[in-house]
Amino acid sequence: MTVVSQRKRIWGWYFFDWASQPYNTLLLTFIFGPYFTTTLSGNLIAEGMETGAARAQAQAYWGWGLAVTGICIAVLAPVLGAIADNSGRKLPWIWLFSIMYFVGSTGLWWTAPQDFSVLWALFFFGIGLIGMEFATIFTNSYLPELDADPAELGRLSGSGWAFGYLGGLVALVIMLGLFQATASGNTLLGLSPMFGLDPETKADTRVVGPLAAIWFAVFMVPFFLYTRDTMQTGAPRLLVGKSVSDLMRSLKSLPRHPSLMAYLGSSMFYRDALNGMYAFGGVYAAGVLGWSVTQVGIFGIIALISGAFFCWVGGRLDRQYGPMPVIVFCVVSLALVALLVVMITPTSVLGIPIREGSTMPDISFFIAGAVIGAAGGALQASSRNMMARQANPERMTEAFGLYALSGKATAFLAPALIAFTTQMTGSQRLGVSPVVGLFIIGLILLIWVKPKGDFAK
Fold first, then answer.
1. Residue predicted with more confidence, 249 or 234
2. Higher local confidence (pLDDT), 122 or 402
3. Residue 123: which pLDDT band, with cuts at 50, 70 and 90?
4. Which own/partner pairs from 18-21 qualify as long-range (CB within 8 Å, at least 24 positions apart)?
5. I need a surface site. Which of 17, 174, 296, 347 has the fewest CB within 10 A?
6. What is the pLDDT of residues 252-306, one digit of tens each?
7. How confident is the model at residue 242 (pLDDT cuts 50, 70, 90)?
8. Tell me, what's the pLDDT at 222?
9. Please, which residues have CB within 8 angstroms of residue 283's CB and are 6 or more apart in sequence?
10. Handedness of CA 428, 434, 440, 446 (dihedral sign)
11. What's the Cα-to-Cα distance from 230 to each of 77, 225, 327, rounded to whole Å?
12. pLDDT tier for residue 132 given thresholds of 50, 70 and 90
């Protein structure tokens, strides 16, 4: 087998973030999510439903769809991680989940407004999201193998996340500049949508699915070229029974590792809150402020530029001070900006009335997006490094499976709470308020987390 240099292994690992980020950027947050809710609400309004109720109902459907997907991920993630640890083989699983990513995102092409199916759209989106999330679990577990010096892992994680944000930014610029039509019928670059895509059938928007799929397929090549598994001598390919047994033993042992247990609990709540902000940020802007898909995309560009820069900065701070201060600062910042978002309406900001036609609500939301991008990116990068510190070095993939479980065991919670609150209040704006409480719970649980973990020697 050809020996791969450390530099190539690191860059191959970085390219997974670059390749996979468009699922979060283009599909979940800035393009397809808002397209799903605006299309569905438009159809409901055409059927006679009141406008506000239709927008709230569309947001609720999106929330319930994400909740179901989150449950699937939560159930399977730790088991698959344990199997990978026992077999020593991660790459075959990443291939499988990469195919799911490709198929799921490609399937979103068949979501035209004229024959829009909620179940079809959520099914394919869920298949791709499950593939992306599971591939991320296995890829994250390679982090401790990239450098023998644990102090460097924070920098590597931050740089990788920053590189991923840049990938999402480039993909979003391509989408808005070459495909997505504005009100004028041309793209932001003044061009007709490529390949003659018809805005009347929303083909210029639906192409985001195949674009994300092709992007992923192309840029996963460096990852597969430079990533190698560390095989266990004589290990069979699958040890399902042993893997489940090992997983149950790890779960039962959590009380003996209070720092790890507290961190899994903390990250469970604050990552769920962050994912809720990502999943509903564009939907919120489209429904509450009446933004077009193009405006939401520009919002995304600002968030991604901010995120890429502060991921890089956060990685350097992580290397110098450790991940804990970065995590605490980011969680506090996100809780505050979540409060700001809830208090932005077309007629007021922070409860202060504004004159009709003022751009202050839009400006405030752009500022909120920049903070979410900056704090959210740095938080995820440092959280990944913190998990590497908390984990048993001999069960790293399983630990990241538990990390995924903690992130997905309640992954349905934020979408479900948002969906439930939206339906109960009939308001998209008030519907996103539960994320503030989730951030606060996550922050409190950090009190019991040791910066270097239970397994530090």
1. 249
2. 122
3. very high
4. 18/163, 18/164, 18/166, 18/167, 18/219, 19/167, 19/215, 19/216, 19/218, 19/219, 19/220, 19/223, 20/101, 20/132, 20/135, 20/136, 20/164, 20/216, 21/164, 21/165, 21/167, 21/168, 21/171
5. 347
6. 777 777 888 888 888 888 888 887 777 667 777 777 777 877 787 788 788 888 8
7. low
8. 93
9. 33, 34, 36, 37, 59, 62, 428
10. negative
11. 20, 15, 31
12. very high
Who wins on pLDDT, 309 or 100?
A: 100
Closest CA to 400 of 82, 109, 87: 82
Q: How far is CA 99 from CA 58, 96, 325, in A?
A: 29, 5, 37
pLDDT of residue 410: 63
Domains of the chain in start order, with CATH, are 6-448 (1.20.1250.20)
